[in-house]
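Hello again, I could really use a second opinion on something today. I've been staring at a protein lately and its backbone has me curious. You're getting the sequence in one-letter code plus the fold written as tokens. I'd be grateful if you could look everything over and explain what you see. No rush at all, and the record is pasted right below:
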Amino acid sequence: MSSGIAGASLQDRKTDQRSSGTDGGAPTKRTPAGAGRRSRRFRREDLIKLGFVLPAALYIVLFFGYPVVKNVTMSFQEYTTKTFFTGEAPWVGFANYVTVFSSQLFTPALLNTALFTAGSIAGQFVIGLALAVFFKRRFPLSSFLRAMLLLPWLLPLIVSSATWRSILDQDSGVLNAALGSIGLSGVPWLTSPSVALFAVVLVNIWIGIPFNVTILYGGLQDIPDELYEAGALDGATGWKAFRHITWPNLRPVVSVVLVLGVVYTIKVLDIILGLTNGGPANATQTLAVRSYQESFVNFEFGVGAAFSNILIVISLLFAIVYLRVNRRAVDE
């Protein structure tokens, strides 16, 4: 009788061990039934995400990556009109870069590029910021005037350059006529080597103001009004409010505006070609103009590619240095 009870209890313990996954030894690991389905679902979701990203990645590689790689390759080749017929572009190493750096126009073009970029960015940013702060205050027709400010940005650059060429004409231009009406003599805006670059910078400032106003105005809208109200209680109004509230909160937007502005301005070509074509006496020659003229006037595509690669390197260096300095200033 007792032995039967003991046997039954022993059998019950074995049954409990099997049901609990133990058999006197190490417990056996079992995969939940839903884990496999979840992993398959995750893989399927990853594939869907990849499907959405892949077209954009292919577009970037084909239309941005390939031209950059091709341009770098061309700068190390003797790539001329003959290449289009023979398909041969002999490898010349750094010969094209030697031609660029030894050119008599390289140093003036580099200096003009720096002056043109610095003057344009300074004018566009200062005027754009002033207008953005002005339009932050609501007044009648403010929305209409902001929309009208976009017109220079919407016009094709070749149209803008043609319009300004007629305005700045020394003999029949509207600007010189206005100066003559107040007793001032006309200025050879586009024909004097000492004035032409200044005139081109003024036109480019006019074109770039809408971009600066739009981006900076959007950044100002993100600054809470409560900060200005709290600052007013502490006496921070006017310039103090701008210095201690507006500017610190606007710095991330300023970084974007300046970096994009430099990258865009340093390669401006349409305006200069439409106004002066690099003249007079090479006074408005920039690296972008030299790249165009070497490629499509002299048909030295390798040398033109070398000029454009220098522009790319300068843009990248500026963006990296500025963003690092700005990030360090924000962290401090």
